[in-house]
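Running log. JK asked me to keep both predictions on one page so they can be read side by side. First protein, sequence followed by its tokens:
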Amino acid sequence: MPLDPQVKGFLEQMAEASLGAPTISSFSPSEYRAISNRNMGTGSKPEEVSRIQEVQIPVEDGEIMARIYTPEGNGPYPVFLFFHGGGWVIGSVDTHDGMARMIANASGAIVVSVDYRLAPEHKFPVATEDCYHALLWVEKHIEEHGGMRDCLIVGGDSAGGNLAAVVTLMAKERSGPKMAGQVLIYPATSFTVSTPSMKENAEGYFLTKDMMNWFAYQYLRDEDRTSPYASPLSAGDLSALPKALVLTAEYDPLRDEGRMYADALAAAGVSVQYKEYKGMIHGFVSMADALDQGKEAIRHIGAAIKGMAAEKAGIVKDS
């Protein structure tokens, strides 16, 4: 279907504002990060939540920060461990603050948003290990913050969706922690496959093929591209992973690899719910304050997290 009218208006404004602007390759990673993070953090007034806390999580060679969003209501709460997008190079808990708040309120779950370390200062696999250490920390400490350690759901958008998928593989191979589900929002799942959507949507739809190539260059060494911890679509065994919600956007270069990963999970026996949002572009969920389908996706994510948590609670109760 054609571009959603709200998205079309956004893209026209963006194109007008960027006339004559230098390309992404003209910037150093730190310069592009500063510019992008300022723009990513703009939007309407964020939703209120009951409580926000910041904690330090020990990782290899240091600590990282995570922000805990507690919704209204009475705990204990399910837990949604969230990894922000930004091509492994940009983004932060601040740029995704509004999205984390909306998911907490829509799902009734505590959201733990992780400030994993970024490339190129910290190349692969630092981000993956940071995110796995965050999962370990949550399992050990989240009860102190009102969360349920036996009801953990992991997720993220774009690069964060990649990291969430990878963390489920790491947890499987490292004997835990167990998770009740995974929510992958237009995830990057492969640095090796060539897809029609990467060609069809290479330019003009917010995220571009050139941007993805630049991000990959900052994040990976050539030999890393085939690792399942970089390209989860290449993992040999996807069985026994948590049930999944996978969302993609029609006009997104990453559309097909997201669908392919959903199909691969289903073929491996994993319970998968998949939806392609028609007329949408990459990043539309984080624009939910301005896009109706972004709001719908937040409701979809919230309902999925509730469902995963309810199913897990039933399993725990019956076991």
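And the second, directly underneath as requested:
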Amino acid sequence: MTTVQVRQNEVAELTFEAAVAYEDPFNHVRLEAFVSTPGGETLRVPGYWAGDSAWKIRYASPETSEHRVITKCSIRRDEGLDARAATVVVEAYEGDNPLYKHGAVRAAEGRSCLEHADGTPFFWLADTWWMSLTDRLRWPDDFRWLAEDRVAKGFTAVQVVAGLYPDMGPFDARGANEGGQSWEADFARINPAFFDAADRKLAYLVEQGLMPCLVGCWGYYLDFAGKDKLRRHWEYLVARYGAYPLMWCVAGEANMPYYQWDVFKDAGKKAAYMARHKAEWTEMAAYIRSIDPFGRGLTIHPTEYGHEMVEDASVLDLDMLQTGHSGMLTVERTTARIQAAVAREPKTPVINAEACYEGIGGTSLADVQRMLFWNCVLNGACGHTYGANGIWQVNDEEQPYGASPTGIAWGHVFWKEAAALPGSKQVGLNKRLLARYDWWRFERHPEWLNPVPDDADVYARPYAAGIPGEVRIVYAPIHTVFPGLTVRELEPDVPYRAFLFDPATGEEYDLGRIVPEAGGTWPTGSLPVFHDWVLVLERAR
């Protein structure tokens, strides 16, 4: 009997060889394992075809001690796959990787933020690497370099698509990696070699403490491949990657038709199309939950609101938003959508999962990245997703991505140049400021600032959030520099010290203890330099 030793939340892999020769193992054979845990549960863990006669079971657990495994094959006479016993011994993890130390990520009990399995709050700062499993982001040097760069900047997650990509049709050569396409022609069967190459990259993200948010496919593959094939696709992903401490994303731009289809241009047809997809993605989300023994978090990437991509938003652990790519014009629209999503009942943690990739269209530069970050988190989002034009599609220096199905390219910036754009470093600096405090307890407090009239001629407003009596954080856009800010409703019995934080450099300017005016207001006066600022008031010790 095989025995495998791993530490808590690390992946144990069991390999089996079929004793029967199968013409089409992916379509004709099923393998699963029943795992008896030390706590008395029995988990049904799916296995996956690894190519040729090889099959694998992957398993992980936070529960220490022995986990007993017995396999079951749909072809009961196959002695290589059926009734095979193994033991997985899980030992205590003593390292610093948060995904192993604290476990996978889920919606917190109050459903306003995310947390690890042990209750430790998880701040979502994701980067957008949609096509990073293709061979344009080379393994190992380039992929590792980018992952390490993002870890150094403070990122905690990466959004990545599992082979069925956006911005191209099925079997486009740009979707391949070293192992080929993710599926064989006509979606005849999965291609394990594609996922062998993907394994190295996804495992490295986890090893670096970056949580993969794995997108099963782009939404229009529901039409290209069909519901049954996508179910098989998801069965394969759950079996192969469910043991990883990741989050599932059911689909990207889930209800959007393919770019060149007539339904995309006809409002009536598009509405009917979207209604049908809404029902089918709801069913798919429920199916993924039903086959996932590890209970990983689940979300869906939208054209606008994630909760509108499904009929029943309770199937989601995270409400993703997409708010546009129009630079400064996107900022206030983003804020309004975040506020609306956060106010929804029943509550779901909210993330802006796509907005204003840095550099797209020659705009959406670092100032927009800072504004979007603070406008989102100070209005109730549980983190933020950043993206850089050139990385999401992986523009190789010698092999840029090229044109979309529309015939227009999004840009040709080399991914490594895009990785050096200042916005990625700056959102990381701002996340580190927020992480000094119990950010998961923050609530928005518009009453802490003088209101800005709805008809004011400004492209961005200041926003405030925090914990009464403990800390207040205010994002001050550039037009507030000359008049300054007026902080309101300061508690008379709470002494505050204040400082200004430069969101572009991380430099701090101490303002000392503040002395409120009568009525609990405090005017900052003009701010020192003509750019945006973060004002922090924290209880003086």
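Observation for JK regarding the second prediction: The first strand starts at residue 2 and ends at 7.
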